[in-house]
Amino acid sequence: MTCCLILAAGEGTRLRPLTDSLPKALVPLLNKPLIMHQIETLEKSGIDNIKIVTGYKSEKLENLGYPTIKNNLFNRTNMVESLFCARNFLKESKEDILISYGDIVYEKKNLEIVLDTIGDIVVMVDDGWLTLWSERNEDPLNDAETLKFNKEGYIYEIGKKPKSIDDIESQYTGLIKISREKVNSLIAFYDSLERETKYDQRPFEQMYMTTFLQLLIEGSWSVKPAHINHGWLEVDTLEDLMLYELLSKELRLDVLWKV
Asked: Which of 3, 4, 96, 125 shows the greatest Cβ crowding within 10 Å of its Cβ?
């Protein structure tokens, strides 16, 4: 069995004015809050042990009725800190744990690929990423990150700035699965990191999740990809929302993600 921790503490400044009154995860996509698209997919796959890490406008997420824990430092931290705000949930779980960004949506078939992939750490990666990034950016290298596999098929590089398309064999999506047996080791690894060191030029508390994954890889952890081809979206900006709504009206969104 599997449980899920949704990281939804973010303010979503690039989605203003929608996020003047709502946390990013409650911004509507096709008339439904982002996080509810995700929760419905989880529940259809039999995952009902769901906890949400809140922060900005936390009371709005608390009203959904799911267990929550608040990242009180949400305004100056990032996803990694939101994750470890929930360390008690991580420690107490007797199941594998899905860790999901609150601003993504994904199809049930992709979730099932992640659930069926066996590994200490499994990361959902989109091999068809270029189609989505080309719709979202004139230059698809904008906002894309490196992701490379070794000869055994595991991820050996993630989250760097690409110099060319060749540096991107797939793309990180924001959905991770941690094996129950590795949770305590994961927490210990996090606790062992130097707090005064900068990580990819960022303070410890603002470390990106991809940076943390790269540190795990460099610490000899095996990070296994769960390969998908489309079937998910991320919503970072108002332009993203407008694009997806337009594609839906033109009956072209199904290529990228089916509601």
From this structure: 4
